Amino acid sequence: MLLKKIAGPLLGLIFAGCILLMLAHPASALAAALRGLAIWWDVLFPSLFPFFVISEIMLGLGIVHLFGALLDPLMRPLFNIPGSGGFVAAMGYVSGYPVGAKLTAKLREQGLVNRVEGERLVAFTTSSDPIFLLGAVSVGFFHDASLGLVLALAHYGGGLIVGLLMSFHGRKEHTLSAKNQTPPSGQNSGRLRMALSSMAEARRRDGRSFGELLMGAVQSSLLLIIVVGGLVVFFTVLMELLARAGIMSALFGLTDRILSLAGFPPELSAALVSGLFEVTLGARSAGEATASIPLHFKAAAAAFILSWGGLSVHAQVASILNGTGLRYLPFMLARLVHAFLSAGLLLLLWKPVISSGLSEHWNSLPAASGLASPASAFVSSLSLLGLLLGGALLLSLLIMLSGIAARTWRRH
């Protein structure tokens, strides 16, 4: 109660101080705003907007319901979420933050997940997209495409571990919704028929023509991408103002001491503090850190920053979750766990992956070669999405067939 009473006045003082700093340094604030706007227009808009539109259309067509019925035998035992979470995981891992949160909010609105399931889902489907991880971070910031494999294993492997850990979240208060209960094992033979029927029913309930569906998808996606851009600009300006006020220097000094006590190079403090606020600035700072720092420590810092996501991404996710009943605190704790897991996994996998020579094969990937345009990035992301969805469907079908075979063997 006391915290709520002082939170309002404290925030008011902080933003009043920001206004005074903007008045004292107008040129720096404007330059920072233009940098944030450039990041949004050059990177985020072309990479995220198509996925926002496509995911909205797929929801309207009932494809998510199809995947939900087929993937339920896989997602329930592993992550304790309904099968529709498999679609969200695939889209979230391919298209990056905050697509996983946006799709989770949509499932919540349609009643396909309850509150606890939604919190589990958004916690482990918020990740960097492969194009940014391979193209921007590995090649653009570190100038070493061979880092792509170990970064991907640490980042996405850490995300899956977070998903497994989050399956225990809220078990005491968790109750299955009627829509999402797994059918009895005897119904597995008709799972494909049930999935197609569920898709047709969802399409019938939506009722919009394809033209109306496309228009609605574009309108809602535009609103969301504008919110994302505004938050990126805000945090870019905020970081500049904090730097002008000397607060960033104080944070650098504090982080220096913590890193020194933990046995890590203190020179990485600038990257970690920048990554606390904005993932792109933090990853770039890690890649451009002094050459005297061992490469595996710089890569671990980048993995930490990518998995934390930055307060800019946290604000985007919080704005998406607002009004859905999903709590922000489980998401924040999951990001923190993911960050430490990814950094630890990278240090653990560094020697086996780098010495094996497997990472050299990643140089031939389009993202690792440096994508020349957002269009090529989008095409590569679609191909990765197809592989993930196809693999998930194949795995769920194998589970279904193994269940049928097991029951047939028991009867005989």
Automatic annotation (TrEMBL):
Q: Which Pfam families match?
A: Gate (PF07670)
The yes or no answer to whether the keyword Zinc-finger is present is no
State the InterPro entries in the record. Gate_dom, Spore_IM_YlbJ
Bilayer-crossing residues are: 47-71, 148-168, 213-238, 295-316, 328-350, 385-406
The record's listing under PROSITE patterns reads: PROKAR_LIPOPROTEIN
Domain Nucleoside transporter/FeoB GTPase Gate span(s) in chain numbering: 44-115, 226-319
Swiss-Prot/TrEMBL keywords:
Membrane, Transmembrane, Transmembrane helix
User: Has the keyword Transferase been applied to this entry?
Assistant: no
Please give the name of this protein.
Sporulation integral membrane protein YlbJ
Q: Which organism is it from?
A: Paenibacillus borealis
